[in-house]
Amino acid sequence: QLQLVESGGGLVQPGGSLRLSCAASGFTLDYYPIGWFRQAPGKEREGVSCISSSDGSTYYADSVKGRFTISRDNAKNTVYLQMNSLKPEDTAVYYCHRPLGDYWGQGTQVTVSS
Q1: Is the predicted pLDDT of residue 9 greater than 80, yes or no?
Q2: CA nearest 6: which of 17, 18, 28, 21?
Q3: Confidence class for position 31, pLDDT limits 50, 70, 90
Q4: Cβ neighbour number for residue 54 with a 10 Å cutoff
């Protein structure tokens, strides 16, 4: 039973920070590349960041580069997305994703508003 469960979303003011968590069950997360995606109402789901399973290399969309950081905690079988300097355009439901098998979490809402 493979599952990804996101948490850590919420309401934050522009310029604030949040840390999202993606907890895996049924598999060892460290063995797989994991990505973060987001989807705002009426918009397509877009890639935000990903982390490799081999050398730990990372990818960031241009829109979040320098503000977001993806990381892994193997002991907790969890991938994190640290989001700093948040902007209203970051408002979306954020999902974690395992490309092998195309597994998705249920999503966590991030709202950036004054």
Answers
A1: yes
A2: 21
A3: confident
A4: 7
Residue 82, both tokens: 């640290």
Cα 103 versus chain centre, distance = 13
User: Who's near 54: CB < 8 A, 6+ residues apart?
Assistant: none
Task: Tell me if 91 sits within 8 A of 40, measured CB to CB.
Answer: yes
pLDDT of residue 67: 98
How crowded is residue 40: how many other Cβ atoms within 10 Å of its Cβ? 14
- Distance in angstroms (rounded) separating the CA atoms of residues 82 and 70: 6
Contact 23, 34 (CB under 8 A): no
The tens digit of pLDDT for each residue in 49-98 reads 999 987 889 999 999 999 999 999 999 999 999 999 999 999 999 999 99
pLDDT, residue 29, reads: 85
Report how far apart, in Å, the C-alpha atoms of 88 and of each of 11, 17, 78, 111 are: 11, 12, 26, 7
